[in-house]
Design goal:
This protein has six helices and seven strands; from the N terminus they run H-E-E-E-E-H-E-E-H-H-H-E-H. The protein has 159 residues and is an alpha+beta fold. The longest helix has 15 residues. The protein is globular and about 35 Å long. The relative contact order is 0.17.
């Protein structure tokens, strides 16, 4: 299910805050993703909630709440070289989809650390969200989880 016009308008408010140089208000809880349209080649943007920031690897974990049909997700999978803005930082990054086990672990950890936000996701999706391992496993099967890794770190790991 895709969001309605009102929801899409509300989703734009954080983008405007980033545009005004106020992205630091979000700390590391949200990031602004700059990506390329898979069909048009045009620049696109989306604000995403950060499930977890792995400070040691400077890796940001997010999920596509609207599944594989989400435009930002499809664009990022087609063109994984992106730029993320977190706080006052701009980071050239690569997107990597997590495997099933890693995605389940990240979602379960997120549900434990942020129970209210996890329920809000359920409300947005129009379903009751259970934090049981079985329910999170089912959620991970339809909600892709991705990692944004700085390009320099990704390049160094591949050498």
């Amino acid at each position: 299910m895709r969001p309605g016009a009102l929801a899409r308008g509300l989703y734009r408010v954080p983008e405007w805050l980033f545009d005004l140089g106020l992205g630091w208000l979000f700390g590391s809880r949200f990031l602004l993703l700059h990506h390329t349209g898979r069909r048009t080649g045009l620049p696109r943007r989306a604000v995403l909630e950060v499930m977890r920031h792995d400070a040691a690897a400077d890796r940001y974990i997010t999920a596509s709440a609207y599944g594989e049909r989400s435009d930002w997700f499809r664009n990022a999978m087609a063109n994984p070289a992106v730029e993320i803005h977190v706080g006052r930082r701009a980071v050239p990054a690569l997107v990597r989809r997590l495997g099933a086990e890693e995605a389940e672990a990240e979602l379960l950890d997120y549900a434990r650390r942020h129970p209210f936000a996890f329920r809000v996701i359920g409300w947005v999706l129009g379903e009751e969200m259970s934090r049981t391992a079985e329910a999170v496993r089912a959620l991970a099967a339809r909600m892709p989880v991705v990692a944004f890794v700085p390009r320099d770190a990704a390049r160094g790991a591949n050498e």
